[in-house]
Write a structure and sequence with these properties.
The protein is mainly alpha-helical. The chain has one domain (about 1-55). Helices cover about 95% and strands about 0% of the residues. It has helices at about 1-25, 30-65.
Length: about 70
């Protein structure tokens, strides 16, 4: 459940960044849609990357504790 929430939060952040960028640039609608698609892809990749990083950090910490 938490990993879906994390992906949703990153997804929302990506959408808001894309919308604000399109407002600042004052670009055409189709370019805004491209920004939206890029934000969706970046959101999913970032969510997966954060998940893998957190899993790797947990494994590394466990290994270090066992070594010590």
């Amino acid at each position: 459940m938490t990993k879906y929430l994390r992906k949703l939060i990153v997804f929302i952040i990506g959408i808001t960044l894309a919308i604000t960028a399109s407002f600042f640039m004052e670009i055409a609608f189709y370019k805004e849609f491209i920004f939206f698609l890029i934000a969706v892809m970046v959101g999913f990749f970032a969510g997966n990357g954060i998940e893998h990083l957190s899993n790797g950090i947990k494994k590394n910490n466990g290994g270090n504790e066992n070594d010590a």
